[in-house]
Amino acid sequence: MNPGANVTSLPALEAWHAALVIFRTDALDALASVSTEINRIEGWLTQQLSHWQRTSRDGEEEVAQAKNELRSRRFPDWSGRMPDTTVQEEHLAEVERKLDFARDQIQVVRRWIINLGAEIGEVYDAPARHLGQFLEGDMPRAIAVLARQMDAIDAYLQLAPESATPARKASP
Fold first, then answer.
1. Residue 69 has what DSSP assignment?
2. CATH number at 11-75+85-156
3. Contacts of 73 (CB under 8 A, 6+ apart)
4. Which of 18, 100, 157, 166 has the CA that lies 20 to 30 A from 75?
């Protein structure tokens, strides 16, 4: 014979039911927030890549311009003396450093984009998908079953015990 559930507190079951509903809502919100944050980070990385590519193109133009300025200063002046090109050489070295930095940043951002996608795919996607499926499929069914069982228990508790008829004394 089935020993029964031994439920001693319907309010405890109701509190548990409410906590499960809140947990499901909070967990779904958390999954949505993480997804939004991942999209935001991926968008930011894409913006950074565009920024450094643009900076690199601008740097290439600055290097070309600095080389032209240096080349134009290397001709002797009207007296036959070679002009000082220190300023132009320093400027060229500076814009070349900036260009190298921009190119390095492009590589760094590309590595981050690749690594982030790999890490998200490896560490986050499958567990998040499983949790989402559980929260969307199994959890609502479990909450509904618990609600039906609580209703059945409540209906059982509402039954009034039959009034016992007093036993008649036997006549002698």
1. H
2. 1.20.120
3. 83, 85, 88
4. 100
pLDDT in tens, 49-60: 999 999 999 999
Please tell me the distance from the alpha carbon of residue 111 to that of residue 64, in angstroms, as a whole number: 28
As given in the structure block, the two tokens for residue 130 are: 């499983």
CB neighbours (10 Å) of residue 151? 10
Which amino acid, residue 88?
Answer: Q
Q: How far is residue 162 from each of residues 4, 159, 165, measured CA to CA in Å?
A: 22, 9, 9
CB atoms within 10 A of CB 157: 9
Global pTM reads 0.69
Q: How many CB atoms lie within 10 A of CB 109?
A: 20
Residues 6+ apart with CB under 8 A from 140: 24
